[in-house]
Amino acid sequence: MADKTSILKEIIENRRIIKPENYNGKIIPEEILREILPAANWAPTHGLTEPWRFIIYSGKDGVQNFGRMHADLYKKETPEVEFLQKKYEKILHKPDLASHLIVIVMHRGDKDNIPEQEELAATACAVQNILLTASTYGIAAYWGTGGMCYHPSLKKHFGLRKEDKIIGFLYLGYSDKEHPKGFRHTGIEEKTTWM
Ligand SMILES: Cc1cc2nc3c(=O)[nH]c(=O)nc-3n(C[C@H](O)[C@H](O)[C@H](O)COP(=O)(O)O)c2cc1C
Fold it and tell me: Where are the alpha helices (DSSP H) in 78-115?
């Protein structure tokens, strides 16, 4: 049997971002999602602020509702001269083949000694825990930040506060396509300084 280190390395190295246009529309059973999500809660967090929050759209109707809301927000908030029908359609249909869509939120805590960047870092760690765990269930995942992700109107839509941040959309589903090969521009040696 493989040892823990090699299992973990294999999971980390083979996790890939797979975009929703490559999904097949199959729905992830809710009990599987409920097994995956607790992994997020074990992310490291300075001062135990646990800043990650997740707004979950489930199933075909759910993800299409998100697409509609997102596209309508784009239309409403974009000056007519800048509005692109093609972009509207892209935002509208992006989640169509996904099973779930999770809006990733950094909920800013009230501990002044914890800098915002640490709460963003903790939330990103929580997302990585989801990505890794989802991959072990054969679930395809995509972390995207396009559309209205950073627009204040989206935070307003969800009743979030000024100090909270939406840091992306996590699309989940199943894909029949060949698992993509990983690619990195440089190895870790080139990003590492040993003192
Ligand atoms: C914070 C964050 C935001 C991202 N936003 C986008 C995005 O808007 N569009 C996109 O194509 N990929 C996005 N990605 C996914 C990356 O493109 C992907 O991780 C990268 O291509 C490496 O692929 P891999 O994760 O499968 O190794 C994002 C990833 C992160 C961590």
Answer: 85-93
